[in-house]
Design brief:
alpha+beta, two-stranded antiparallel ribbon, 11% strand
Length: 140
């Protein structure tokens, strides 16, 4: 069985020419953490300020990760997100669907059967799932 992946990577700088940073552990937040991508990219190659790996891991688990989760939760609450269900509601309905309009503009032919199948998949697999309640951020 595979070992569960941690939501971060912890490593030391192994360069020999760097004397001032020797022994300090660094971290990068991975996308496995479930945090938004911009937070993961911002928290890349940051110093923990700890000289022992166990202290660095403990700091990340008990302080830094909860702090980042709180920041992400506050940011989502402040946005005026459109639920995925409302965003996908007009899809695969002829005359309303933006995707079908794009296909028609590209002069692609789609059958009525294909449209019915796609709409059925949306209803069955997406609309009935709890994922349909997640928010889609508005376009800037």
């Amino acid at each position: 069985m595979a070992r569960a992946q941690l939501p971060f990577y912890v490593y030391q700088n192994k360069r020999k020419d760097v004397k001032t940073r020797g022994g300090v552990w660094y971290y990068s937040i991975s996308r496995v953490s479930g945090l938004p991508n911009d937070i993961c990219e911002r928290e890349h190659r940051k110093s923990t300020g700890k000289r022992r790996k166990s202290d660095a891991v403990e700091w990340l688990l008990n302080e830094r990760i909860p702090e980042l989760e709180h920041e992400a939760a506050n940011r989502v609450d402040q946005r005026n997100d459109l639920p995925l269900r409302e965003y996908l509601d007009p899809f695969y309905i002829p005359g309303i669907c933006p995707h079908l309009a794009r296909l028609e503009a590209d002069r692609r032919k789609v059958s009525v059967r294909w449209i019915v199948d796609q709409r059925s998949r949306l209803k069955r697999l997406v609309f009935n799932d709890e994922i349909s309640q997640i928010g889609i951020p508005p376009k800037p």
